[in-house]
Amino acid sequence: MQAATQAAAYRGGRQWAAWGFLLPLVAYLLLFYAYPLYRNLELSLRDYTVRSFVQGGAPFTGLTNYRDIVDDPTFEPALTHTVVFTVVSLGFQFAIGMALAVFFHQHFRLSATLRALFLVPWLLPLIVSSSTWSWMLNSEAGVVNTVVRALGGEPIHWLTSPGWSLASVTIANIWIGIPFNLVLLYSGLQNISPQIYEAAALDGATGWQRFRRVTFPLLRPVSAITLLLGLVYTLKVFDVIWIMTRGGPADSSTTLATWSYQLGFGSLLPQFGPGAAVGNLLIVAALAAGLAYIRVQHWQAGRA
Fold first, then answer.
1. Using one digit for the tens of pLDDT, what is the confidence trace for 148-197?
2. 85 and 166 Cβ atoms separated by less than 8 Å
């Protein structure tokens, strides 16, 4: 009887200890994730002004803010720019990151040093990277146009031309995101047994065949999470675009992320409700991507 009592007390003590370790994590999630999400949803369902934002009492408007942003003429180009910016960035970041990961997987001399140098764009603060690209793409004194002139071409207005502004911020974002893809994909390559490559070589597989039939299939789990994280990050990119073009000229590089900021904080009469509504659209897009990833993982596990 005494042993049973001691065992129950021990189990109870372990449960309290487990809750004690979980409590800081739960408090963090509630404070920095659950509450901001609730607050953003509540903002999008009410007609907030500066006064009501501080004092409270904003009238409930339901889905009016969502209807307003969909009917706004800025919505369609902002959505299109977001899709183009995200898809092009992800495609090039993943392709170049994969190529570099395979290249550095050869373990040649200075491989570790060069790999570390490739991490610099990822380690720099975004304001530094974005400002550097702004200087490089400056129409008059930028190094890119200097090279264009030296080759006999006409200078391009990278940041001030509606036809080039979105391409300019996309190029900068691709450069910033390549190291992230390189790190994840390289770590995935490290987990592939060299014996598999040796067996493929003995079967007469060429380098491209080894990549297509060995490397790429075995990297699918890492590739999926890399693309998912890249999608979530790219959807919310704000710093790069705002520092380089502020969404202009003429909204030619405005995305949903920059439009949300412009609505909420970019004018003397902020529109907190519509700004929050645009932000919630980005949250829904990221959530949909996460659910799709989970569904694909379950489907692949069912086939295994």
1. 999 888 889 999 999 999 999 999 999 999 999 999 999 999 888 888 88
2. yes
In a domain, 219, yes or no: yes
What is the C-alpha to C-alpha distance for residues 232 and 286, in angstroms, rounded to an integer? 5
Confirm whether 272 is domain-assigned: no
Cβ proximity of 237 and 257 under 8 Å: yes
pTM of the model: 0.88
Does 263 map to a domain? no
**Rounded to an integer, what distance in angstroms lies between the CA atom of residue 200 and that of residue 103?**
18
CA–CA distance, 34 with 283 (Å, rounded to integer): 13
Q: How many domains does the chain have?
A: 1
Interatomic CA distance for residues 258 and 192, integer angstroms: 41
CA 97 vs CA 23, 118, 199, 226: distances in Å: 38, 10, 26, 10
Domain residue limits at 122: 75-253
Q: What is the DSSP letter of 62?
A: T
| 187, part of any domain | yes
**Residue 227: strand pairing partners:** none
Question: Tell me, what CATH number does 101's domain have?
Answer: 1.10.3720.10
Question: What is the structure's pLDDT at 294?
Answer: 83
The segments of the chain whose pLDDT lies below 50 read: none
For 194-224, the pLDDT digits (tens) are: 888 888 888 888 888 888 888 888 898 899 8
Are the beta carbons of 97 and 274 closer than 8 angstroms? no
- Rounded to whole angstroms, the Cα distance separating 15 from 19 reads 6
Find the DSSP H helices in 108-247. Answer: 111-117, 120-123, 126-136, 143-150, 165-190, 194-202, 207-210, 216-218, 220-235, 239-244
